[in-house]
Amino acid sequence: MSGSFNLSWGDILLCAAMGYLLGSIPFGVLITQLAGLGDLRKIGSGNIGATNVLRTGKKWAAVLTLLFDAGKGAGAVLIGQHFWGAEGAMIPEGAMIAGTAAMLGHIFPVWLRFKGGKGVASYMGVLLGLFWPVGLLAIATWLLIAWLFRFSSLSALVAAALAPAYTIAFGNLTLALLTMVLTIIIFLTHHDNIYRLWHRREPRIGAGKNGV
User: Considering Cα of 158, then 53, then 25, then 80, what sign does the dihedral take?
Assistant: First the structure.
């Protein structure tokens, strides 16, 4: 046993490795290459997420990327919960470890020399897997802000900022603490976007291939 965890260090490492490897699969890069759209890392911002895939002009490819990136976050949580979940726990340790590792895997994928995406879709997937009401509220927030202002980054930042509050409203303080940590990660990965938003230079959703 290890500290306040019910998992051994070996189980923690296995769970984290599983989540990281699943999260590090670069679906955006794979989908655009299979579709003959070229190297996603040389298009627009070079980011491997769905927003940059949209700049190829192929909405279906962006939707697939979004679903797969969210799916790997949710999938890591469910696998972690199944194999390393503490019976009776409101949020099993394995689920939290695997979900966090999956999000970090997307941001720092070993296959792409640790240069990945910003983690938004994976973050939403992790929230859905951990506690689906909060996940749905975060997605609804993203959609609302995107519809109102047409900034993908602003939508992500607002949704991430409100996710801990949603979690607290449901009375799950353990998940709220984890959500706060993941939200900080989202803000860190969006530091360039925050700068551009502040200086009114952030491109709107649907910007062409030269958008950032």
Answer: positive
Q: What is the pLDDT of residue 151?
A: 95
Six-digit token string for 86: 């503490």
Q: From the CB of residue 188, how many other CB atoms can be counted at a distance below 10 Å?
A: 12
Q: How many CA atoms lie within 13 A of 153 on its CB side?
A: 25
Mean pLDDT for 63-89 is 89
d(CA 29, CA 129): 24
Ranges of H-type helices in 115-190? 120-130, 132-149, 152-169, 173-189
Say if residue 86 is exposed, middle or buried (CB neighbours under 10 Å; 0-12, 13-18, 19+). Answer: middle
25 and 72 Cβ atoms separated by less than 8 Å: yes
User: Which DSSP helix (H) or strand (E) runs through 8?
Assistant: none
- Contact call for residues 170 and 133 (beta carbons, < 8 A): yes
Q: Where are the domains of the chain?
A: 9-198
pTM of the model: 0.91
Return the amino acid letter for 136: L
Give the number of other Cβ atoms within 10 Å of residue 140's Cβ: 12
Beta partners for residue 2, in sequence order: 5
pLDDT-wise least confident of 15-19, 85-89, 168-172: 85-89
